[in-house]
């Protein structure tokens, strides 16, 4: 496929994903995975997991970061530019339009009911992305322990109303993973 066709395909795909993703970037992960790993096979499963990890770890919304990385991976600078633009256009257009009519928009009861239905779908999309990522995660003892402790902490902190940013979960898990890597590397060097 030529570079221009790749960029156009990337733009249209991201435009479609941006237009039909409700609930933010986490809900978009499942759609990105389905489109770029399962359907188009532009990314491998482990590479997609790396994309999500990098997008989550860097500043900015995960949807924008993921789109930018995938676009760059597929078509360089212009791929990242158009992928990012395409994923932003639908939500910008919708929010801008809603802001023009916001007061009148809230008065419609069917709008409130529609948002309740959308919320249920968003929970499903986020859960679906989490399950797919868990299935493709390398399941070793360290990873499972980090996952279990993180989930337990998140639940307990929510129950007891303890404020703890998700950024700290990422940083702590990253430090633990790096420490485990260094320990394993040191053990291999010590062996004859």
- Low-confidence segments: none
The arrangement of helices and strands along the chain is HHHHHHHH
Q: Round the Cα radius of gyration to an integer and report it.
A: 20 Å
Q: What's the total helix number?
A: 8
State mean pLDDT (0 to 100 scale): 86
Biggest sheet, open or closed, and with what strands and sense? none
Q: Termini distance? A: 49 Å
Relative strand content: under 5%
Q: Helix coverage percent of residues?
A: over 70%
| DSSP summary, beta strand count | 0
Strand-pairing-aware structural class: mainly alpha
**Net shape:** globular
Describe the fold and architecture.
The chain is mainly alpha-helical and 192 residues long. The chain contains eight helices and no strands. Helix 1 (3-19) packs across helix 2 (25-39), helix 2 crosses helix 6 and helix 3 crosses helix 4. 21% of the residues are buried.
What tags apply to this protein structure?
192 residues, mainly alpha, 8 helices
How are the elements arranged and paired?
Layout: H1 3-19, H2 25-39, H3 45-57, H4 62-100, H5 102-106, H6 109-136, H7 141-159, H8 166-190
Helix pairs in contact: 1-2, 1-4, 2-4, 2-6, 3-4, 7-8
Summarize this structure briefly.
The protein has 192 residues and is mainly α.
